[in-house]
Amino acid sequence: MAPIAEWLFFFLIFPGLVFSVLLGLVLVWVDRKVTALVQWRVGPPLSQPFWDVLKLLGKEVIVPAQAWAGGFLGLPFVGLAAGALAATFVWIAATGLAASPGGDLLVVVYLLVIPTLAVILGGAASGNPLGAVGSSRDMKLMLAYELPFVIALLVAVFQKHEIDGESVRAGTLSLSGLVDFQRDVGSVLLRPSGAIAFLVALLCAHAKLGFVPFDLAEAECEIGEGALLEYSGSVLGLFKITQAVLLATLPVLLVTVFWGGLAAFTVLGVLAFVGKIVLILVLFVLIKNTNPRVRIDQAMKFFWGPMTVLALIALLLAHLGF
Amino acid sequence: MSSPTSSPAPTERRVVQIGPFHPLLEEPVGFSLGVEGETVVDVDARMDYIHKGIEILAQQRTYDMLPILLERICGICSVTHSVCFCNAAEDLLQVEIPPRASYIRTIIAELERVHSHLLWVGLAGHFIGYNTVFMWAWKYREPVCDVFEMLTGHRQNSALPMVGGVRRDIPEKYFDEARKTLDMVDGKVQMLTDAVLDDPVLAARLKGVGVLTPEEVMAWGVVGPTARASGVDTDVRRDEPYAAYAELDWDVCTTPNGDVFDKAVVRLLELKESIKILRQCFDNMPSGDLNLGTLHMPRGEGIGRYEAPRGEDIHYLRSNGTNMPERLKVRAPSYTNIASFKASCIGEKISDVTITLAACDPCYSCTERAAVVRGDGDQPERTFGDLVRLSQAETRRLASEMGRLPDLQLK
């Protein structure tokens, strides 16, 4: 297969668009089911998220009269494309699928910003005052969590290990390079610096996914879904799909950077990989269900204060070899 | 509450509309928040979406039928309004109801308070995005409603109170079952209280938010748990006892700060007191008559006061000597509590205002007693037929504007 066709397949089918959407919707079901169990409810059947999205895709799209129609309708596609591309890079690196690693940590970080940007701009384009409030909150939140997120991810790059009396670092921003390095020296997560950085990155990813306590950009009881307020029908469905893609990407990114990715293509290795993803997802769900929503100023203080300090401490510890 | 990062430059003022239909509201009501940035600078409420015309209906029902009608003023406070009306009628008649009847009234009133407060705790959790609390509080509300059904035959509307006592007895064989449920609910309320008091995120989110000072409480006439959370020691059950409250051992709960956090805490503490009252009622249930039989209502006026779960409820009754009231005026507690939003919401952020709006447990169905429709003055009064024709003309106009054929078969 020509490389371009190969990469198109990676991007569109596996592990990109189609695969990450399907997996993401399954993970949405895991989220809803575990939430239901925590709340003593029965929860939906596995097919429910699929039906929800299918129903939305078939519904009428209403563009508000005061909206900028081009942006309003175009941004969901941009967000989904960026999310699917990020999923492609992360999954290829995590599983070692392609021979030439295309994924670079910083590229993925940038790509993961775009879906959030699409929501922000879409909310602003809708011309709704509540959408504007939602967009402004989302933007502030993004500024807040991106800094500790990137610092925490860099811990994996700079962590110092001793092999045969020689100190080595991963020293690469390539995701597959990080996986290969961890195969040699063990998971980043197992060192104190890695554990702290993992915790920080987990909470930042939590905010990126817009889960409670950081769901203030949607906050249906305050600003009625915020930026997504005016969205309906298939474009809303696209945002929901993008959300599912992020849900299928962020836990895998965390596993790849901090927990060795898919260590071996054996039954046990695959099971461990899936187990790690589900474990991170359940952590997300538990945090989500045991906290009330915070205010935007509290969220910003949280990320720029304790989280950034923790991330910097982790970076220092990593440099010192802990 | 302005954050240090906000700029002093004047920002554009917008109106954020909450309602008439909104995820925050379990009933239709329209709040218009004047907003600069995320800071609320003005609040206005519009009601009249669910006016049911209860007061005019009350003038067309006999005294025997009235408690059953008045139970339907509110979906939650059904005992509140029927017993409050009975208090007013008994004030007019100057009669004492039999002791067993007063105990039965106390039992259904306190069961109602327990399930109403649990309902509020759940809703408040939902409003701040804490859906686990929502589900858990409502899970423990269910057994309380079940006890209500065991004792009275219905989860909400007991149809028990009547002028001069209660209509039917409640079966004592279920008291043990009810005690067991109360023990369970008591433990869970304790768990919820501890969880709320210990949760740092809840404290950060709710402390210092939507504060009502005691002066503001007095100025706006705030009643019930909303007033008690500001340290104002007021409770009709103690100040002007009705039913069996004077004979029972219980305390009025107050908290000092007047913020949303304290409003939650005061309700959780009241739950414990209500359960204490219920246990005493089950243990000391007197025997005897249930009611005073048929009473003739003389000409005169009566005022009934009642401590509803949301505060003091007042019914004013005027009788002209017939078997139907000449006038029945209901003033529900939310009527005064809603007005206090002017004091508690202005200057807060939108995210804090939403929970503040919910913190007085407003009940719009209770509040909407009169709808004032401003006429244009020189326009003639319209009949029902006129209104139908006007609305048909409007439908045609809208249909032609939207480029569609009207779906209605218009004559």
Report on the structure:
The complex is a heterodimer of chains A (322) and B (411). Chain A has 322 residues and is mainly α. Chain A has one domain. Chain A has twelve helices and two strands. In chain A, strands 1-2 form a two-stranded antiparallel sheet. The longest helix of chain A is centred in the middle third of the chain and has 30 residues, at 129-158. Chain B is of the alpha+beta class and 411 residues long. Chain B has a domain at 54-339: Cytochrome-c3 Hydrogenase, chain B (Orthogonal Bundle). Helices cover 46% and strands 13% of the residues of chain B. Chain B contains 16 helices and eight strands. Chain B has helices at residues 54-58, 66-70, 78-93, 99-127, 131-152, 175-198, 200-206, 214-220, 225-228, 236-239, 260-283, 333-339, 341-344, 350-359, 364-367, 384-401, and strands at 13-18, 30-36, 39-46, 161-162, 165-166, 299-308, 311-320, 325-331. In chain B, the strands form three sheets. Chain B has a three-stranded antiparallel β-sheet, with no helix packed on it. In chain B, strands 6-7-8 form a three-stranded antiparallel β-sheet. In chain B, strand 6 and strand 7 form a beta hairpin. The chains are: A mainly alpha (322), B alpha+beta (411). Chains A and B meet through helix 6, helix 9 and helix 12 of A and strand 1, helix 4, helix 5, helix 7 and helix 14 of B.
Offer a concise description of the structure.
Chain A is mainly alpha-helical and 322 residues long. Chain A contains twelve helices and two strands, in the order ααααααββαααααα.
